[in-house]
Amino acid sequence: MALDLPKGVYRIETAPPPGVRSTHAVGELLGTPVLALFDPTIPGGVGEWLLTPVQGSNDAYTITSHNHPIHGGWGYAEARPDEKVLFVGPFETKNWRIIKTEDGYVISVPGITGGIWAVTHEEAIEKRALVIRSYPVRDTPALPVWRFRPANEE
Question: Looking at residue 52, what is its pLDDT?
Answer without folding.
Answer: 95
